[in-house]
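FORM 12-B: Structure-to-Sequence Request
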């Protein structure tokens, strides 16, 4: 039992698939965490600078009330020590610039401060677009200067958007390095686990595929190792049971014995090629056995010539229908005919074809039955399946190919039980075609030399 060849290992395909799903989860999660971290960092920067602006506004209250411009300028010079701070501005309650720190080129823009300030969509702050020629964008933090619950002015702190983006990028880079440092060992461990699990799973699947292929070719007797789990374990146990059952069936069949002819033909050097032993094969078949019910009573009242004519018409119909569904006539026995539908082991197509052939045969016999042929509407049919020996009969000049097996006895017994126009099928046949037929169970009874009762079914028709 050899596993099928595969240029690309099956377990690597499974591992790549699992890894793809892991990355499909991790990558979006990492992007989401990175975005959330950026938002948290941005909020932290804004809160910190807002706290600083409020402190400067509080310290500017007395200088603004007394008109101490020099004191205001000295005070706000401490606000631009951070490289990310572009300016600090104190305005009176009429929004006139009283003191400022920062490049002189900002004075003209600060004079028209209210016209240039727009809300910031992300944090509810305000952005100052300085336009041409600089094209700078500033995050402005403005807080009121209050004295005794009266607004006496405003303090504004301008932060460079580029500087803020650099801080956000630095934080994201730090987060990425930490993620790689701490998650990479876990990812590698997960990858190793996926590879090991995939290899183990693929080995089991390859074993089961090889077992199925062996059963298809008739190579039985193997036993797969136990597999844990409700699904693969059940499948492995089923394949083992099927293999053991087929092996028992094959061993129960008599082994063919072909004795060399006596006298001058005993030695191989003198034996005729026509009489040398021929390889006998085992195969799964379905047997259709049809016979005339009440044939003796019918034949006693008919001329022998008329009996032969009626039988020939009946046999011709049976052979034609069997051939239509891929079967062949194995034997004509008196008023009965046995037809064989064979196929490769474990393929149920031969059983389905035999059932369809039986229904078609009954329909044709009933349609063509007439007064001049009174046996066509009195045909009973039995159908059984099983393992049979197959080979030519060497004693006959034309080496007629024949089958030998228990299923012939069972099909004959079912034919005996069947009434005119009835089709009886065995339990094995029903289990194979139950998805496509309607049946009527009949009580179990002992058949032939079997000691245990057999379950049989009366075939009613095909499901629509």
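FORM 12-B RESPONSE
SEQUENCE OUT:
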């Amino acid at each position: 039992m050899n596993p099928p060849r595969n240029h690309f290992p099956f377990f690597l395909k499974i591992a790549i698939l699992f890894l793809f799903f892991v990355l499909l989860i991790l990558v979006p999660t990492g992007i989401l965490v990175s975005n959330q971290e950026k938002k948290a960092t941005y909020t932290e920067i804004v809160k910190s600078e807002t706290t600083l602006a409020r402190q400067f506004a509080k310290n500017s209250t007395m200088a603004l009330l007394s008109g101490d411009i020099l004191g205001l300028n000295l005070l706000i010079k401490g606000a631009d020590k951070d490289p990310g701070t572009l300016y600090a501005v104190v305005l009176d309650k009429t929004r006139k610039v009283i003191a400022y720190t920062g490049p002189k080129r900002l004075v003209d823009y600060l004079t028209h401060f209210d016209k240039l300030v727009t809300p910031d969509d992300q944090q509810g702050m305000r952005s100052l677009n300085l336009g041409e020629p600089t094209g700078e964008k500033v995050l402005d933090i403005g807080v009121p200067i209050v004295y005794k619950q009266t607004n006496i002015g405003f303090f504004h702190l301008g932060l460079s958007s580029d500087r803020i983006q650099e801080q956000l990028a630095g934080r994201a880079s730090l987060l990425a390095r930490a993620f790689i440092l701490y998650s990479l060992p876990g990812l590698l461990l997960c990858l190793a686990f996926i590879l090991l699990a995939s290899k183990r799973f693929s080995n089991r699947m390859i074993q089961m595929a090889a077992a199925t292929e062996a059963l298809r070719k008739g190579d039985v007797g193997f036993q797969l190792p136990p597999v844990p789990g409700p699904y693969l374990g059940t499948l492995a146990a089923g394949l083992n049971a099927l293999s053991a059952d087929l092996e028992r069936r094959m061993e129960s069949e008599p082994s063919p014995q072909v004795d060399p002819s006596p006298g001058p033909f005993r030695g191989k050097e003198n034996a005729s090629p026509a009489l040398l032993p021929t390889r006998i094969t085992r195969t799964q078949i379905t047997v259709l056995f049809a016979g005339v019910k009440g044939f003796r009573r019918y034949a006693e009242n008919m001329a022998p010539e008329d009996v032969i004519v009626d039988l020939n018409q009946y046999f011709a119909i049976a052979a034609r229908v069997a051939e239509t569904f891929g079967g062949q006539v194995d034997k004509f026995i008196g008023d009965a005919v046995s037809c064989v539908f064979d196929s490769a082991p474990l393929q149920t197509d031969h059983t389905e074809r035999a059932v369809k052939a039986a229904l078609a045969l009954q329909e044709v016999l009933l349609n063509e039955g007439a007064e001049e042929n009174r046996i066509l509407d009195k045909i009973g049919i039995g159908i059984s399946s099983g393992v049979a020996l197959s080979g030519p009969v060497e004693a006959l000049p034309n080496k007629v190919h024949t089958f030998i097996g228990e299923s012939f006895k069972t099909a004959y017994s079912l034919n005996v039980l069947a009434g005119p126009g009835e089709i009886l099928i065995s339990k094995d046949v029903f289990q194979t075609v139950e998805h496509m037929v309607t049946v009527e169970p009949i009580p179990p009874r002992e058949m032939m030399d079997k000691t245990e009762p057999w379950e049989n079914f009366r075939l009613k028709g095909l499901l629509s």
